[in-house]
Structure formats: C-alpha cells, structure tokens
C-alpha cells in the first residue's frame, strides 16, 4: 500500500514502546496498531486494523477534527484529552488518555499517540519535584557559602579574645563563654560542610555491581546492630554491572538503611526487626525527563512504623527530619547521589511497611 509496507522493521520498533501508537489513514481507517495499544484494547491488531479510530475514543468528533486539521497541514500536530474505550465492550472501564495526532513522512498517513493520563501526571509531578529539588539545592548551597565565610571570622575572633583574657583575673571564668562560641562555630561549620559535601567530591567512576554495594551496606549495618535486626536479601542476580561511583552508592544506600534501622528501634529491642534488600529489573522507565529501556530497582523495605505522614512529602528536602537530633541531610544526599547516576529515589510508606526504591538506569 504505502511506505509502511516497505518498512516492516520500523513497525516492529513501535512494538517496543510503552506508549500506545497507531498509524491511521487520513480518512480515519486504522492501518497499524502497536503492541501496547493492542494490549490496552484487548483486541488483536487484525480486528483493530479493520476498525475506525473514531470508534475507539469517547470524543470521536474531536479526533476527526484533529485528523482533518493535521492532514490539511493546518497544524503539524494536535493534542487533546479524551477516554479510550477498551475492548470495544461497554462494561470495560474507559481509560483517560491524552491523544497526540501528528504528521508522518507520508501525506496520507497520520501518527496517533495515546498517553495514559495517570502516567502523564505522574511524569509532570516528577519533573516538578526535580525542578524544586534543584532550586532548593541551589538556595542551600548559596546560604551555606554565605554562612561559611563570616563563621571563620567569628571563630578566629573568639580565639583571640580567649588568648587576651587568659592572663587576666576574669580569664578562667570568661573562657567558658569563648569556649561556647568556638564550639558552636565548629558545629555550624560541620553542618555547613555537610550541606556542601555532595557537590564537592568529584565522582570516581568504575564498574559497579549493585549486589556488592548491598552486601557492603549489609555488613556495615549488621556491625552497628548485631542483635535483633535481620537483613534479608532478595537479589535478581541477572542484573548487569553498570558505570558509577561505588563508594557514593554505598553511602546512598547506607543512609536509607540507617534510617530504616533507626525507625526499627523498638522492634530491634523486641527482636523482630527486618530489613529486606530486593533488586529487580525494570523496563521502559522514565527518570526525570529521560526514558530508559532498562533500569534496576533496589528496594529497601522495613517493617517499622512508617514515615511520619506530616513529613512524607518532604523527606528528600534538606533539613527535614522526624527524628530528635536528626540532621535531615541523609536522604537529600542519597537523592543527590542517585541523580548523579541519572536515577532517582522514591518512597512508599505505611505503618508496618516502608519501601524506599532506588531506580538506576542500566546500559
Ligand atoms: N524507613 C523509615 N521509616 C520511618 N521514617 C523514616 C524512614 N526513613 C526516613 N524516615 C524519616 O525521614 C526523615 C529524614 O531522614 P534523613 O534525611 O535521613 O534525615 P535524618 O535521619 O537526619 O532525620 C527521618 O528523620 C525519618 O523521620
Ligand atoms: Mg538519616
């Protein structure tokens, strides 16, 4: 018929997409559907290819309009939201989708992309979160630099003052005050250093095996909590190595495992605390603004009380802590490290089960 008959390879490539795609004739007749669309519609592509696309969508007229406009070259692509009827059967729940109609190389053929709306909004949300995290990080970094400079001056002046006061009568008494100033300046200095830390060290890139990272973290945490804590492994050993900074990744995982162990304190005392390190392969994942064919997931699960709901949405932000004496920097650092590996961390938590998921793209 047309270009597509000469390019079956190109059509097969469409089957690898997670997005639903169809090629339609300008008169609305379906020419080809990819595997993702076939699955959602629960009909074979042979059946679908004999149907009219208007019939699949709740808003068939809107589609007609889009197809006309795009094929007349009034606009090169058109986007709208509607519902996709599945199975062409009335009892099946319709799927909210965003439809994009665009031109192809061939004047008679149009490309129809259907993106599930839930996926769309999740992606939007993730992008927004990433932007926000970026902005917060910059703010913190600037603030930290602003604090760092005068801090050196304050500490130096307090030291000089202490020296001046030493030989005087009041010296021993006032030394207490200068000590407080110096001690607090040091504490602030170390906080500022930790705020700036993730940006300071250059990455050391090599081949990383995720299970080596897990094993290392496991032995570190078991050394810290020798009694009452079980750390179970559930590894998919088929996962390949990838390029990354091994030490940084150990740090990222360790921060999460340490939080879990801290949250598990009462269970550790009772002897039934459990952390699970689970690795899995994931396909066709979107991380930030990029799409990857293959990724690994490392789940760090614990049977503790869960993340306090009032801070759940903010735990990756700096200085957010639900713990007495916590710095609120652990998860920020872990997230930064994951992002430096093009990955990300998210968290799903309820009382009795908390799951931190690190997703990292694979080659
Ligand atoms: N596995 C977990 N279970 C319950 N709460 C958690 C867990 N992991 C993190 N949190 C919460 O997230 C907060 C932030 O963690 P983090 O950034 O490491 O800072 P910090 O540990 O210094 O408080 C913790 O204080 C805790 O309230
Ligand atoms: Mg922590």
TrEMBL record:
PROSITE patterns: HIS_KIN (PS50109)
Enzyme Commission number, as recorded: 2.7.13.3
InterPro entries: HATPase_C_sf, HATPase_dom, His_kinase_dom, HisK_dim/P_dom, HisK_dim/P_sf, Sig_transdc_His_kin-like_C
Tree of life domain: Bacteria
Keywords: ATP-binding, Kinase, Nucleotide-binding, Phosphoprotein, Transferase, Two-component regulatory system
Every Histidine kinase domain range: 142-363
Alphabetized Gene3D superfamilies for the sequence: 1.10.287.130, Histidine kinase-like ATPase, C-terminal domain
Pfam families: HATPase_c, HisKA
Catalytic activity annotation: ATP + protein L-histidine = ADP + protein N-phospho-L-histidine
UniProt protein name: histidine kinase
Organism: Roseateles subflavus
Gene that this sequence comes from: glnL
